[in-house]
């Protein structure tokens, strides 16, 4: 099953080898539990381990293999980030996709060797979503052939970029490019921030950390201001865009090619989110198979809480989602790598499809992942609330994905633009022009679903029902938009009046895609035992997801209430059928205890002994009487007692 999750036996067994290697190297392990450390201690500890990784990487992984590096980072550094998180996640991808060969020779090679540390500085105090209104300006000075970076007001300060505050000495900075008074929109520049020897900020640079956050606190998200700070013309990243010495602007082959680092993260983060969801579910499912509370049959002993249907309903649909997301994530990464290669040859035709797909997936997956992690926390009762479970940290890190790389409700609208265009083609009788991701929009729907009406061994009837729902909502939302425009609203006003419905269409389209990705993967599985288990999980998934959106199919009679009853019964049937495999389904992700960092979710299942040992290790328990008690509480109680006398 691990080979299914990790897209092949090769990587699944490499993960095992890497974990086994690390198990024998205590210097790579956390020196104490992360929840007991201050932010400063965590950053120091993470830097220590990062240095070890850099020194010994070649002994443990193939450094050219991104997935091996990712696994090494998960095991050793964990999810709370590290001082070079953005270096790998965005700085290198930005240089790879946007720097010219010459620039790559100069900077990318140094970045890969970790001679320099970089980040991606785009968001500002005043603007994150609306990139066209960024306020940092890069004005071209023809005389000196330099760009002058400047922060004209407080809202123009870069704000949020990961590892900008303290760790990075370079950044790919996004700024509005002004040449001879003309604004050429957001462009990307390679900018030195700190002296390479002393790490002191360079003259003209104001820089620092923005303070603690909900989670992800090992990362020093930072602020950055420029005071007429000069960089050479050749620091504009020039793989696709160019500015000649005389200030002539050479347009890229696609207007949004500079957004590639964002598309990179959106493509990869689907897998990252699936893994975080699977972390929380591993913890909660293992714990639920140890925790005994209450009886189902009063003549019998107390049961494991995993026997309760409500507990199964709380956890198993999310287990199915984690599998669905990891399968969909593998597809987005493949598409991203393909688009990257095609762009190299000047073919930008798939950029819009990739952007639409990743915008939708990013939004739906992060939202459902956060929901699933929070349910996993609640499934652990009181102990879920303790940081010993580590689920609150997993939630905090994962939920950041709803905001970063484009706020979810904004990114759903990006997909909606694509869907509306497609709906326009359908309306104009040009369905043959629809791309493969939206071809279903042009197909004719049956009048009713055949679920429970015809013997259906496969998933075709379910897929058709999801298609019907997504198609109906897309065409309806587009019609609403066109209707407002026909009545005289500008497109922008009409768009704003239709966005709730448009975003619903985007979600339904994306949920259809996730179901289809799951079906595609299950159909490929050759081993009959694995196929059976995955088919059960997929059955659970389609019934659960369909119930969740059933209103759309009920309102036009595509599904009847008796079909809905059938879907419900199927859901309950598969909850029970999956129960014996539940622990194996989470164990198949093969997370080591080191990687999970959860006292509650350890493989040995010794929950109570482990919790007690953890509590005893709490720094507060080093002394029996805390200084705060001596200083305040004792005098308080003493004076209360004295006043009573
Ligand atoms: C897209 C915007 C919202 C709007 O941009 P514009 O205003 O410029 O565009 P328009 O809305 O007018 O649209 C015009 C047109 O362009 C199309 N478009 C837009 N973007 C793209 C694109 N990227 N590609 C192609 N086309 C694009 C759009 O569709 C329109 O087309 P039509 O006219 O034809 O309809 C934009 O402003 C925007 O993107 N805003 C969001 C800003 C944002 O995302 N900021 C991100 C900042 S960086 C950040 O947040 C970093 C966080 C990093 C955290 C690190 C975590 C990493 C986790 C990694 C996990 C790895 C796991 C690996 C696992 C493994 O390996 O196994
Ligand atoms: C953990 C974390 C890490 C980050 N790392 C980086 C980084 O490394 N580099 C970097 O540059 N940035 C980074 N960011 C910033 C991040 O990319 C932005 O915060 C994000 O893109 C959202 O933009 P915003 O903050 O401007 O939100 P806003 O756009 O202000 O959103 C506020 C609300 O307004 C709504 N809204 C905004 N515009 C519209 C619209 N057009 N239509 C409808 N509703 C709208 C949103 O839906 C939301 O409800 C990070 C953020 C976080 C939380």
TrEMBL record:
* Residue stretches making up the Acyl-CoA oxidase C-terminal domain: 460-638
Query: Which Gene3D superfamilies does the record associate with it?
Result: Acyl-CoA dehydrogenase/oxidase, N-terminal domain (1.10.540.10), Butyryl-CoA Dehydrogenase, subunit A, domain 2 (2.40.110.10), Butyryl-CoA Dehydrogenase, subunit A, domain 3 (1.20.140.10)
Per UniProt, subcellular location reads as:
Peroxisome
| Acyl-CoA oxidase C-alpha1 domain sequence ranges | 259-420
Q: Which cofactor is recorded for it?
A: FAD
Alphabetic keyword roster = ATP-binding, FAD, Fatty acid metabolism, Flavoprotein, Lipid metabolism, Nucleotide-binding, Oxidoreductase, Peroxisome
Task: List positions binding FAD.
Answer: 123, 162
Q: Under the GO molecular function aspect, what terms does this record hold?
A: acyl-CoA oxidase activity; ATP binding; FAD binding; fatty acid binding
Domain annotation Acyl-coenzyme A oxidase N-terminal: ranges? 1-117
Q: Which GO terms describe its biological process?
A: ascaroside biosynthetic process; fatty acid beta-oxidation using acyl-CoA oxidase; lipid homeostasis
Q: What is annotated as the active site? A: 405
Pathway(s) the chain acts in: Lipid metabolism; peroxisomal fatty acid beta-oxidation
Q: Which InterPro entries match?
A: ACOX_C_alpha1 (IPR055060), Acyl-CoA_ox_N (IPR029320), Acyl-CoA_Oxase/DH_mid-dom_sf (IPR046373), Acyl-CoA_oxidase (IPR012258), Acyl-CoA_oxidase_C (IPR002655), AcylCo_DH-like_C (IPR036250), AcylCoA_DH/ox_N_sf (IPR037069), AcylCoA_DH/oxidase_NM_dom_sf (IPR009100)
What Gene Ontology terms describe where this protein resides (cellular component)?
A: peroxisome
Query: What family does the database annotate?
Result: Belongs to the acyl-CoA oxidase family.
Q: Which PANTHER family match?
A: ACYL-COENZYME A OXIDASE ACOX-1.1 (PTHR10909:SF368), ELECTRON TRANSPORT OXIDOREDUCTASE (PTHR10909)
Protein name, UniProt field = Acyl-coenzyme A oxidase
Which classification does the entry list for the species? Answer: Eukaryota, Metazoa, Ecdysozoa, Nematoda, Chromadorea
């Amino acid at each position: 099953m691990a080979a299914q999750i990790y897209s092949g036996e090769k990587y699944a067994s490499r993960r095992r080898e890497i974990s086994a290697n690390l198990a024998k190297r205590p210097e790579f392990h956390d020196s104490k539990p992360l929840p007991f450390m201050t932010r400063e201690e965590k950053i120091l500890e993470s830097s220590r381990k990062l240095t070890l990784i850099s020194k010994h990487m070649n002994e443990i992984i193939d450094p050219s293999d991104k997935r091996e590096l990712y696994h090494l980072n998960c095991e050793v550094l964990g999810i709370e980030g590290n001082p070079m998180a953005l270096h790998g996640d965005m700085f290198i991808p930005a240089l790879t996709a946007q720097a010219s060969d010459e620039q790559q020779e100069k900077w990318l090679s140094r970045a890969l060797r970790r001679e320099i540390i970089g980040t991606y500085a785009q968001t500002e105090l005043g603007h994150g979503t609306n990139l066209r209104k960024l306020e940092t300006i890069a004005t071209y000075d023809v005389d000196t052939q330099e760009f002058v970076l400047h922060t004209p007001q407080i809202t123009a300060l870069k704000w949020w970029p990961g590892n900008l505050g303290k760790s990075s000495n370079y950044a790919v900075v996004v700024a509005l490019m002004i040449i001879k008074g003309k604004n050429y929109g957001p462009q990307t520049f390679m900018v030195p921030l700190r002296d390479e020897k002393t790490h002191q900020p360079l003259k003209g640079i104001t820089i620092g950390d923005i303070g603690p956050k909900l989670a992800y606190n090992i990362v020093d998200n930072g602020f950055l201001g420029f005071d007429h700070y000069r960089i050479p013309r050749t620091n504009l990243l020039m793989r696709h865009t160019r500015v000649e010495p005389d200030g002539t602007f050479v347009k890229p082959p696609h207007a949004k090619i500079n957004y590639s680092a964002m598309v990179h993260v959106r493509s990869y983060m689907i897998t990252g989110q699936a893994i975080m969801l699977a972390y929380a579910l591993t913890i909660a499912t293992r714990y639920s198979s140890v925790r005994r509370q209450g009886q189902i049959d009063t003549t019998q002993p107390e049961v494991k809480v995993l026997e309760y249907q409500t507990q199964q309903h709380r956890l198993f649909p999310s287990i199915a989602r984690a599998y669905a997301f990891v399968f969909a994530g593998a597809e987005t990464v493949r598409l991203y790598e393909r688009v990257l290669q095609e762009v190299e040859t000047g073919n930008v035709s798939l950029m819009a499809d990739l952007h639409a797909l990743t915008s939708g997936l990013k939004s739906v997956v992060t939202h459902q992942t956060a929901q699933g992690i929070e349910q996993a926390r609640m499934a652990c009762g009181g102990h879920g609330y303790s940081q010993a479970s580590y689920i609150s940290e997993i939630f905090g890190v994962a939920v950041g994905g709803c905001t970063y790389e484009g706020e979810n409700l904004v990114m759903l609208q990006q997909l909606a633009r694509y869907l509306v265009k497609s709906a326009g083609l359908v309306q104009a009788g040009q369905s043959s022009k629809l791309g493969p991701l939206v071809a279903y929009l042009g197909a004719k729907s049956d009048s009713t679903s055949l679920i429970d009406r015809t013997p259906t061994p496969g998933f075709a009837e379910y897929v058709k029902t999801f298609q019907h729902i997504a198609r109906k909502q897309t065409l309806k939302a587009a019609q609403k938009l066109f209707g407002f425009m026909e009545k005289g609203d500008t497109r922008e006003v009409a768009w704003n009046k239709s966005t709730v419905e448009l975003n619903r269409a985007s979600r339904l389209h994306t949920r259809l895609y996730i179901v289809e990705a799951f079906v595609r993967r299950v159909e490929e599985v050759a081993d009959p035992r694995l196929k059976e288990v995955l088919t059960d999980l997929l059955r659970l998934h389609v019934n659960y997801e369909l119930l969740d959106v059933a209103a759309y199919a009920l309102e036009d009679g595509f599904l009847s209430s008796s079909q809905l009853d059938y879907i419900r019964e199927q859901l309950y049937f598969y909850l029970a059928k999956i129960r014996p495999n539940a622990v194996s389904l989470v164990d198949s992700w093969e997370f080591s205890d080191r990687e999970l960092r959860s006292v509650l979710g350890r493989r040995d299942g010794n929950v109570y002994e482990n919790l007690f040992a953890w509590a005893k290790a709490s720094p507060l328990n080093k002394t029996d009487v805390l200084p705060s008690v001596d200083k305040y509480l004792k005098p308080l109680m003493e004076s209360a007692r004295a006043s009573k006398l």
